[in-house]
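BUG: 3D viewer hangs when loading the predicted structure for this chain

Environment: internal workstation, default settings.
Expected: structure renders.
Actual: progress bar stalls at 90%.

Input used:
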Amino acid sequence: MSIIASKQKVNVRFLGRSSTEVTGSIILVECPTGEKILLDCGLYQNANLLESYKVNTSKFDFKPSEITFAAISHLNIDHLGLIPKLFADGADFPVYMYYHNIEFVPIMLEDSAKIMERDSVTLTRRYKKEYLPIYSQSNVDKAVSHLLGCAKNEIIQVTPNVGLKFVPAGHIFGSTQIMLYIKSPSGHIDVVSYSGDIGNIIFEQPFVEDFEPIIKSNIFIGECTYNDPLRSAKKENRSKDLEIIESVIRQTIENKGSVLIPCFALQRMETMLYTLWSVFHNDESFTTQIIVDSPLAVKLLDAFEENLEDGDAKLFEMILGWKNIKIIRTIEESQSCVEDTRPKIICSSSGMLTQGRSILYLKKILPNPKSAIITCGYMAEGSLGWKIKNMSNQKTITIDNKPYANRCSIHSLKSFSSHMQFEQLINYYTNLSNNGCQTICLVHSDNGKLNFKKALEDNIRKIGKTTKVVAVNKDTVTRI
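Structure tokens produced before the viewer hung:
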């Protein structure tokens, strides 16, 4: 049941699909002094191309021209990817983010615009009706021109009534939580905070700033991707995963097969290269090539080299200088590599095998009983990656409308999620309650959010607090 908005209060509206799913983050904060602030503006992504297109082309539930400013938590496209559409629809306001992210934004959005152009062609051909791209490169250029970088843990007075602070989230490189300090007409200051995506603190996250908890907030908007303790990874899962990586790769190479590791281009690629280096670089007898074949990932690797500092920069340089790693930079190199039958390890995007060059390698590897696929990330239900991961008994898998024999071995890693796990989320949000948080709003989750809500409420009651926990939906408006 929605709460009627009040002009005398701070109102928080949950407008994106992250109100009920794990994608499409858009949150609107309305201040009593008139400012309207966007927290993230992300693309909706699922396995149904037409459904995603309809959601992403729908009219915003606000007028972009009336927004005072936007604050973006991090670089994942489901948090950032609709910013150009705002400017295509008449926006003209500053977009704030942690300054380390600025160089990455054009890379991510240009790639997104290219995908949209390709998807519009696919939809037009499939449904015999014209589908225009959601936005163009010119919209990307306009959006990028409005970016403003900020330091972490410093309050910036954006307007006389609203301060802004970015706090490290530990999720991916440059990821942050967002804090808004909102002054009422009477001079009272309320704090609205937003987790963005919070990092997995159980396992090592190479090239990522450590998570720092927000201590005090009136309203906290928190992700709960891992809403089920049964889905959460344990410390022992990482050692098992490292054993899987080493044993599968050594056995597959010995059998003269190849290993495909589909990776998200942003952060997961860097994490996987670090992992492979950690496992194999001291073994001089290990000479198998590790192929990095993804135009987006290669651009991001270059941006990482420019933006990493101190020890991280030296380690990253060492990894990329490892003799086993081969970075593919041209289409000709890629085509040659796909046709090369020599054993190799391929790290390529997309991570869910929905598109990209990983598909080209998949068509060669899936029918080969000597080869293997190692999955290391989230697979949207119904996506090609999800089918391969969950339908190992199916004799064939359809790729680009053609059946391919399903013969290679499939292995799934459990410890490479970059999201905070169930128990750590419960502890974090309970500590917020202990420090006086009035309302915790749960977002970025599926139907399991209700069970997480109950578990959090039980934990809060145990410490004698009365913080309200809201499992939000599209109609929810929270206010203070």
